[in-house]
């Protein structure tokens, strides 16, 4: 959530649930992996079973022309050598600028947050905004305290005793970050529970079907 706004997170959630082709770019390769993993876990208990490549190399870049859904990360500098195909139906996210372009293709509808149930979506956005504010406060606290801590803070933490004030302070911060991460997972899980509520009623067992699903043949 450090890198993405709440509205952008919701937009990406829609793209995942509707199985779009999603292309992310950044010069920071670690960010590509972190965001990619976070996006996949947003739709739990559903699974992203199609193509997922956290970072793709230049020699394999032709994969983005695949007609099937995917989630792929790439270096932003690749655009010095090629351009995305126009109207290729690719949802593009620039993680360095937070610029998002929805997938455009002839005859393909553009999905946005309006396709999601309103009440659960509102609850999710409210909760994410609260957690994002907590993250912002933690970052500000760390910036303020870093002005008072010497440059060798990491070394001090490594070689200080476990009950020292510095070690205890860092331990508290780690616990807070872990707690916020758990709250984010819980918020998305609650949303998915609402989304999949009564989903079983929309399924028709194969044995009750009037036709053979596999071969589309009417049963006698």
Automatic annotation (TrEMBL):
Record-level GO BP terms: regulation of Rab protein signal transduction
InterPro entries: cDENN_dom, DENN_C, DENN_Domain_GEFs, Tripartite_DENN
Molecular-function annotations in GO: guanyl-nucleotide exchange factor activity
Domain UDENN: 1-220
Domain of life according to the entry: Eukaryota
One GO cellular component, as annotated: cytoplasmic vesicle
PANTHER family for the chain: DENN DOMAIN-CONTAINING PROTEIN 3, DENN DOMAIN-CONTAINING PROTEIN 4
Protein name: UDENN domain-containing protein
Pfam families assigned to the protein according to its UniProt record, in alphabetical order: DENN
């Amino acid at each position: 959530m450090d890198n993405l706004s709440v509205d952008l997170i919701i937009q990406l959630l829609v793209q995942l649930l509707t199985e779009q082709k999603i292309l992310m770019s950044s010069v920071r390769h670690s960010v590509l992996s972190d965001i990619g993993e976070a996006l996949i876990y947003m739709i739990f208990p559903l699974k992203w079973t199609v193509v997922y490549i956290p970072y793709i190399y230049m020699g394999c870049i032709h994969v983005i022309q695949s007609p099937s859904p995917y989630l792929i990360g790439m270096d932003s500098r690749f655009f010095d050598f090629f351009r995305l195909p126009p109207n290729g139906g690719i949802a593009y996210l620039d993680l360095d600028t937070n610029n998002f372009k929805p997938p455009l293709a002839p005859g393909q509808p553009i999905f946005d947050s309006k396709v999601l149930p309103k009440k659960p979506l509102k609850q999710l956005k409210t909760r994410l905004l609260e957690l994002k504010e907590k993250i912002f406060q933690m970052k500000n606290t760390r910036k303020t305290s870093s002005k008072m801590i010497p440059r060798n803070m990491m070394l001090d933490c490594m070689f200080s005793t476990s009950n020292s004030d510095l070690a205890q302070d860092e331990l508290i911060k780690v616990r807070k970050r872990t707690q916020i991460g758990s709250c984010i997972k819980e918020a998305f899980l609650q949303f998915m529970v609402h989304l999949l509520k009564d989903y079983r009623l929309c399924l028709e067992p194969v044995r009750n079907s009037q036709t053979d699903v596999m071969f589309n043949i009417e049963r006698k």
